[in-house]
Amino acid sequence: MATATPFNPKSMVDSAWKIIPFFQSRDIHATVLLYTQELGFTLGSEEPHFASLFAGPKAASNIYFSLCREESEFRASSAMLALGTEQHEALYAGLLARRNQSKDETFEIVEEIRDQEWGFRQFSIKDRDGNRLTFFRFLEGSNGEELWAGE
């Protein structure tokens, strides 16, 4: 009689190669404009009730958005995005300049850039729907530069 292999979820989830947060949006098209024009994401697809946006090599960072029309059901979400050292600093400087020059509040910087005791340098923004993105880089070690070396 064959012995059953014990259930080992770790061996299964160790095959993970991507995680995709799912955010809600009150206006899919406005969300797409913010994330593509202001934050530099690439549009994967846009439908009336759904959008897929991505960034990074091989679409390493994805965010899916679904339309939520019922205010009582709306829940803001958050995610963290790791960036290269120079890109992190340049994105912050650019977003700060846009915030200071624009009257249109498509996003809000809710955490100014700073070093954290846990080894990140980070800043956070919120979109019009209250979804929060924290952009970070490691203070020491790899910041992914090897992923786009030679591009």
TrEMBL record:
InterPro entries: Glyas_Bleomycin-R_OHBP_Dase (IPR029068), Glyas_Fos-R_dOase_dom (IPR004360). It comes from the Eukaryota. Residues 25-134 form the Glyoxalase/fosfomycin resistance/dioxygenase domain. This is Glyoxalase/fosfomycin resistance/dioxygenase domain-containing protein.
